[in-house]
Specification:
heterodimer; A: Ubiquitin-like (UB roll); DNA polymerase, domain 1; 2 domains; 5 strands; about 15% strand; B: alpha+beta; Aldehyde Oxidoreductase, domain 4; five-stranded mixed β-sheet; 20 helices; 29 strands; globular
């Protein structure tokens, strides 16, 4: 079937199978930041923002996304760079495989929470697994990013 | 200038912004999809296999079975050559030895077609009785490799007719005599489990034939040069026809040291002429790659009443599963990178058997035996302290290794062969210990503090050491090229799998060349274009490859001085990174590099440096944990983990810190709940992230890592390794904390609440 997807404010007409998952469609369209980590919707590495909600794209049928606003890290522009700068300032991106989805997750979290507590941050991001970092560096980077963001908005 | 600076990883921004960088991102768009039909049985012979229906499907381009692939024996291990692992594996064989062993390979134009085709392959198996219990495997009538021609490249104690993949024994002094003359003897048995690497990127490989009809492989590997060699020798493809390139890799931790999907995509592409790719499913990563060697470790320690440890004896049974990847060397490291911690003994014994079973193979995993050995040794030291009625910290202080001391073990035990003698020129274990005790507040908290009538908080501690490369075996090399306008290219064989080695190697080159790191473009891990490097394993990159880079850069400085002398026609020139000076003149590097490229005395400056270690200076660390435990149930949580590390100079303090933090969390996972279980038929239970739990960000309190000042004279700018050591201390530290809270010794990993409860209640 042909569907129309709004990805990062770009409109794509794309042929998909009825059982095709958004992860595969996005990669087919060239959004290679969206990656597969598991087969069971557990690792969070395929997460994208759909209408400002964090969704694992590996188990989201592509046609369900019609009419919705999909955001991947490629579409976050300046915000993605700032979050990226905060992560890389700690060296916590390491292998980088989970980083694009983490950037999207942090961005999406901050749309929902103005000023999340440490516990809220951990809870919101709990589905984003990382095997390299031990997470401590994420905490440092996110705190730093939130400070920079606040200073910027003043 | 560049070293010991927390600069950003050179690939960091690109990766966080989602640039296409990993194998599947770079695979040709029309690559055939490759998948494997895998054995549902733990041990079976293929009586017949009919692939005709699958082959008739128009979407299917290639089906491989044992009948149409090269018949050579190999080891997947991905080590130097000749390998210290037995040649006991074929690409595809008519006998399958574990659930998940490959039976047939199917390549086609879509995932769906390939999955359909796999269902159309008819296989008749003769099901054999498997051997699944590793404690019963030795000399069992069920033989995992029954007369199938397996062999060893040199003596590794390989006796397949006894289910022994490898074995080793050594004794320094007389263990028996010293045990007999000790005032007290502690004896204890410990078990460590198989652990999965759970790297986020599944193993991925793609292959295509280029315009010269050479086989190009892009693969998520830790060892591109070993992969080229193994493919050539196993698949009978001339070495010069193969190019292997490692792009960005989504984590390895040892799991991508071996050859995995590379053999299959190579065969498919050679047979069809078409590009192909094999992206492992998460289930395949768990079931069909490999995990950590499970071990049973028997400890005996003899000591005098005053706390002098006289003798340590370690006796290991290790489970390598169906194939003996890293069987011998992981075993040896369990002793060689733990026992020298207590170097004042009069005798030390170490021996072990590595047995075959019909389970998922075991292989390299961060810590590589040391984490298993550490759990046993550092638990045993606390037990010994209790018997002696001596404070466990005082016992350690009295017996532990110190700077400028040695251990005979360094000389006797290497990896797969004898070691090399070493005086430890950098060891700040004493400072690490003091720092950790102060930071965690040991005095106030040891052994435990009651929170309320049901809850206590307790502390536990362990020491650890690792190595830095494999002396006289592992070689790393680098090449540096000066470009017009004074920029440099650094090409290295070293394999950055997310650790940041491309960055820290550039920092080392920049330090020698006295230039900013951003003047250096780094390119790595390409068997055509970069010089050789064994790859990312054995904690070798900073130390071994780093020394290679340093040599190449030092030669480049000499070359710059040479062209400076020629330019000024003077013997007295100097260089400071920006200018080349004669007695009364100067020229910038930018100008001189441009002149020798375009106008005068034209020539290309390029240098090469390579390095093989003569010793493997150990990094050291002390880890201490504070836990909170419910005395009624044994349920515990980790509040804080303090680590103090001596890895010599930290080339990049940020990246070193993340290495240790990440290692600690993998160690905490191993200590607390990660495990690989099988059904009675040998089927893996934990084959997804739903059933194999890795730590999330909610489960651990805080991890605090610090580095002590230390300088290793043989390392590049004083550096040692840091990649593995972080994983070593949590199992013993957590077990010791539980003992300090509950009074029971848990000798089996992972440490589950119910095990604590049962032990407490004598069940």
């Amino acid at each position: 079937m042909e569907i129309t997807l709004n990805v990062n404010h770009n409109i794509h007409k794309v042929l998909v199978e009825s059982d095709e998952m958004l992860l595969d469609t996005l990669r087919k369209l060239g959004y290679k930041s969206v990656k597969k980590g598991c087969d069971t919707t557990t690792c969070g590495i395929c997460s994208v923002s759909i209408d400002d909600e964090l969704i694992p794209s590996c188990s989201y049928l592509s046609y369900r996304a019609e009419g919705k606003k999909i955001l991947t890290v490629e579409g976050l522009k300046e915000d993605a760079r700032k979050i990226g700068e905060a992560l890389t300032a700690e060296g916590v991106e390491q292998c980088g495989y989970c980083s694009p989805s983490l950037v999207v997750a942090i961005h999406t979290m901050l749309k929902q929470y103005e000023d999340p507590s440490d516990e809220e941050i951990k809870h919101y991001l709990v589905g984003n697994l990382c095997r390299c970092s031990g997470y401590e560096g994420h905490n440092r980077a996110i705190k730093h990013y939130m400070e920079v963001r606040h200073d910027g908005s003043k | 200038m560049a070293v010991n600076k927390p600069i950003r990883k050179i690939d960091g921004m690109g990766l966080t912004q989602g640039k296409p960088a990993y194998t599947d991102d770079l695979a040709p768009q029309d690559a055939l999809i490759v998948k494997a039909l895998r054995s549902p049985y733990a041990y079976a012979k293929i009586i017949s296999i009919d692939t005709s229906l699958a082959e008739k499907m128009p979407e299917i381009k290639c089906v491989l079975t044992y009948k149409n692939v090269p018949d050579n024996l190999m080891t997947r291990a991905g080590q130097g050559y000749p390998e210290p692992s037995p040649y006991d594996k074929k690409v595809l064989a008519d006998v399958v030895r574990y659930v998940g062993d490959a039976v047939a390979i199917v390549a086609g134009t879509s995932v769906k077609a390939v999955e359909q085709a796999m269902k159309k392959i008819k296989v008749d198996y003769e099901i054999y009785k498997p051997i699944l219990d590793f404690e019963k495997a030795k000399d069992n009538p069920v033989k995992v490799h029954d007369n199938d021609g397996t062999f060893e490249m040199f003596d590794i104690g390989h006796f397949p007719d006894r289910n022994l993949a490898a074995g080793y024994a050594m004794e320094i002094g007389s263990v028996e005599k010293e045990l007999n003359s000790s005032d007290v003897v502690y004896e204890g048995r410990y078990y460590t489990q198989a652990q999965s690497h759970a790297m986020t990127e599944p193993h991925s490989s793609t292959a295509y034939l280029d315009y010269q009809e050479r086989l190009n492989i892009i693969t998520s590997t830790q060892t591109p040069f070993h992969i080229r060699r193994i493919l050539s020798r196993t698949l009978n493809i001339p070495m010069e026809k193969i190019k292997v390139f490692k792009p960005r890799v989504g984590g390895g931790y040892g799991g991508k040291q071996a050859v995995h999907g590379e053999v299959f995509v190579s065969l498919v592409t050679m047979m069809t002429g078409l590009p192909s790719k094999y992206i492992y499913t998460r289930r395949e990563v768990f079931e069909s790659t490999y995990s950590r060697h499970a071990m049973r470790i028997d400890m005996k320690i003899g000591a005098m009443k005053d706390g002098t440890i006289q003798v340590i004896d370690m006796n290991i049974l290790s489970n390598t599963g169906a194939y003996g990847e890293h069987a011998l060397t992981v075993l040896m490291v369990a002793g060689s990178k733990t026992l020298p911690l207590y170097n004042k003994v009069k005798a030390v014994g170490f021996r072990g058997d590595v047995v075959y079973t019909n389970l998922t193979p075991a292989g390299a995993y961060r810590g590589y035996g040391a984490v298993q050995g550490n759990f046993a040794l550092e638990s045993a030291i606390d037990e010994l302290a209790e018997i002696l009625n001596i404070d466990p910290i005082e016992l350690r202080k009295k017996n532990m290794i110190k700077e400028m001391e040695t251990s005979k073990i360094f000389e006797v035990m290497g990896e797969g062969k004898e070691g090399s003698p070493m005086t430890v020129e950098s060891c700040k274990l004493d400072i690490c210990l003091e720092n950790v005790l102060n930071k965690i507040g040991w005095k106030e908290k040891y052994p435990c503090v009651e929170v309320d009538e049901n809850t206590v908080r307790s502390v536990g501690l362990a020491l650890a050491m690792q190595g830095s490369g494999i002396p006289f075996i592992d070689m790393g090399s680098a090449s540096i090229k000066l470009n017009d306008f004074g920029t440099f290219n650094l090409t290295i064989g070293a394999t950055d799998i997310g650790t940041g080695s491309d960055t820290i190697l550039a920092q080392i080159a920049a330090e020698v060349l006295q230039i900013p790191v951003n003047k250096i473009s780094v390119y790595s891990s390409d068997t055509d274009l970069t010089p050789f490097d064994v790859g990312a394993y054995a904690s070798s990159t900073t130390y071994v490859s780093g020394n290679g880079v340093k040599r190449a850069a030092e030669k480049m400085v000499q070359e710059i001085l040479r062209i400076g002398r020629e330019h000024f026609d003077s013997d007295e020139v100097s260089y400071d990174g920006e200018y080349i000076y004669s007695k009364d003149d100067k020229i910038s590097l930018v100008d001189l590099a441009t002149i020798i490229t375009y106008s005068e005395n034209q020539q290309q400056l390029q240098t090469i440096g390579s390095y093989v270690g003569e010793t493997a200076p150990p990094p050291y660390m002390v880890g201490a944990v504070e836990i909170e435990i419910d005395k009624r149930t044994g349920q515990y949580k980790i509040l804080d983990y303090y680590a103090s590390v001596d890895c010599g100079t930290t080339i990049n303090p940020n990246l070193a810190k993340i290495q240790v933090e990440g290692g600690l969390l993998q160690g905490i996972g191993m200590a607390s709940y990660e495990e690989v279980n099988h059904t009675d038929e040998g089927r893996l239970v934990n084959s997804s992230f739903m059933k194999y739990r890795i730590p999330t960000r909610e489960e651990v309190g805080e991890i605090h890592v610090e580095f002590v000042e230390s300088y290793e004279p043989s390392g590049p700018f004083g550096a040692k390794s840091v990649g593995e050591i972080g994983i070593d201390t949590p199992p013993a530290a957590i077990a010791n904390a539980i003992k300090n809270a509950m009074g029971v010794r848990i000798n089996k990993l992972p440490i589950k609440a119910e095990d604590i409860w049962m032990k407490k209640n004598n069940l």
